[in-house]
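Deliverable D5.2: sample structural annotation.
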Amino acid sequence: MRTEPSADPYVPGHGDLRYAVEEYDLDLDYTIAGNHLAGRTVAHCRTLEATEEIAFDLSSALRVMSVEVTGATVKRHAHRGSRLVLRFDRPVPAGHRLTVTIATKGHPRPMRGPDGLAGWEELADGVIVASQPHGAPSWFACNDRPSDKAAYRVTIACDAAYTVWGNGRLAARRKAGRKTAWTWVQSEPMAPYLATLQIGRYAVRELPDAPIPVHVVGPARLRAAMDSAFADQVRMIEAMQEWFGPYPFAAGYTAVVTDDDLEIPLESQTLSTFGANLMNRTWEAQRLIAHELAHQWWGNSMTARQWRDIWLHEGFACYAEWLWSPVAGSESTDARARHNWSRLAALPQDLVLAAPGPKDMFDDRVYKRGALTLHALRGEVGDDTFFAILKGFAGRHQHGSVTTADFEGLAARVTGRRLTDLFDAWLRSPALPQLGA
């Protein structure tokens, strides 16, 4: 079998543009002791072009036990590296529907990519799944590209002493021998890297008086610290709905707190995960709580079609921090912007925001320059028009995939103006532009 090209040059060896998955149905069995995961992935697929084969992404840490396909006959399959290629006995046409069932078992571990390790990771007593941008295949077979968004149903049986939190809504929880089986349903389309499971000895608390269902999940020993850290979570949601439009997911939002310290928090669709070290009222902790929440609009509901446009996630979430700052009684948004402009001005001027390259896709300059781009746009068009652009962008592309050109086009339509010079300077030139007065 020939080696298939990647769907995205920023994450080599991942994703297949020849087909799309419309729904995943995962049936998993996990044992904490020994970190053993057995699973069956059912992927309901549609071909996007005529093809003789398709590829799934799957870590070499998981062994393929069987492959079954409805809708075509598999001549042979091969699992090499992190790529499972299915070769059909004859070409299938574009628009053809396939149901692919892949059984696996093994000891999942994070996968190495251009930015380090990502995916299924054992904690001292539990598991986090942090897959951005390439770690989804560490625990299930998938078409690992951000533009391939699908519905998910995930059932996992796990040791009964543990809580398992996943994407979307909890559809069922039942006894399964000595284990408990949890079923999580994410109805709105989701990119594979945003799929997650969080496993720990956790207690669950629902926050009162919230405009959507909001939960905080974490160790009982951290209850007081979590109450303090998330004291403004409901106000944050209300503020972001005012800035960005309605919260995009029916199931609501959850903050999961691990018993371990984590280097950075992470967002997944409908939930974010934080380490115990961020359970405080410092600005550093509070800005990250705001940042991860903002990703539900920018990155989770509206997702960049390719990783080169990651500023549409991180720049927007960073700007949400700066918007939250004065609401929290801290510095003004403009003060935050000017402080960060000064920091960037002292750094190398060699990053192009609209195409940072795989090595720099998560460079802090992408976050801060992305936020500064939005602040410059706000200064150019005024508050009313600026927030109309943000709400229009989030609403028009809810649960969809976007490019930088989509944002530029919407901004031009809302303002009735050509904003090419502004966007060229901030997005396509490495030199840092001046901020307006």
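Annotation notes: The CA atoms of residues 341 and 371 lie 10 Å apart. The domain at 203-296 is CATH 1.10.390.10 (Neutral Protease; domain 2).
The annotation will be released with the project's public dataset once the embargo ends.
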